[in-house]
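User: Sequence in, structure out. Go.
Assistant: Echoing your sequence, followed by the structure tokens.
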Amino acid sequence: MKKKIKQPLDGINVLDLTRVLAGPTSTQVLGDLGANIIKIERPLTGDDSRNLGPPYLDKNSKNPMESAYFLSVNRNKKSVELNLTKKEGQEIAKKLVKNCDILVENFRAGNLKQYGLDYKSIKKIKPDIIYCSITGFGQNGPYSKRGGYDYLVQAMGGIMSITGEEKGSPTKIGVGVSDIITGLYSSIAILSALRFRDITGKGQQLDISLMDSQVSWLSYMAQNYLVSEIIPKRIGNDHPSIVPYQTVKAKDGLMVLAIANDRQFKDFCRFANIPEISNKPQFKTNSSRVKNRTQLNKIINKTFKTKTINQWVNGLIKVNVPCGPINNIRQVFNDEQVKSRNMIVSMNHKKSPNKKIKLIGSPMNFSLSKVKYKKTPPILGEDTIQVLKDFLKLKDKDLKKLKRNKII
């Protein structure tokens, strides 16, 4: 008889040695899927991102540690304070590994060797461990010893060179996309390695870097270069190979028009009362529109000034032409579609003034094995005693000694 599970990763234990954004993004995904995440944090200070604020949930505290940044990627995790610089702390971590299926870490390449927590050392005590290493530049190569940060990798990985206005400066994207994409790739790799282990019984090390992930994420822009050897340039909010797929100015402000095929363009022209445009040779196909972008934009810009954003949106969606407003974050969370998809979730949190916090929901929807919001982002060390008792069967006297020696 097959074991009944409620979530895909029920019964999977993860030792989480990550901090800030890329690693915690990955382990939060695993936690949302049912894995038991044991997050190791430095005593007293914890994950670096606890101090990346304001805003803070506990803003009135003398030492606020519940930053919005930390809260965004640390639900469904247990927090254990553990000093990995001390031998006793390293031994506890190794004992925890014996009870885990996965270890995720984002230390600089080679740094965990000094603690005996590198892959080769861990493999000796847990041969089938899935050990995911997340770094800035990977485990090998000339940059492997460098620290890697999202902003740096956005610059070095090419995305900034194609983001921004044509005559303006290169611009970073408004969130840490290199970190987030790396976290998602890490989750995909971990799930694949779990499947491989199910079949072969073998664990392995996963080497995921911000730089590799960012280069991969260049997608068709990088492929354009590889095919043509022409270096892509910034073109603002226009699309390099689809027209009109851009920002347009209506009577009362900016909005987005995202026409992806010739049928949509024809229907747009009909609604905009310029039907003759869609039959002109220079605009009839997408390829011709790309070549004659400047000429077409003059017509479109003049046309859009005749109606408000709402008039354009309400009219164009009736003829299945993609378009929409440029929402600020408040407008996003007030959007009826976002609300209907449960992209805001409420959880209890003892540091919140009203004992509740709102978090961004998971985008993963399953018909059976649904995402569960079981545990609010933890207060530093709130699960230390319970985890060490449950996993290592430590007694109160042992725990008091560890606390006295500043190991936990």
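User: And one key feature?
Assistant: The chain has a mean pLDDT of 95.
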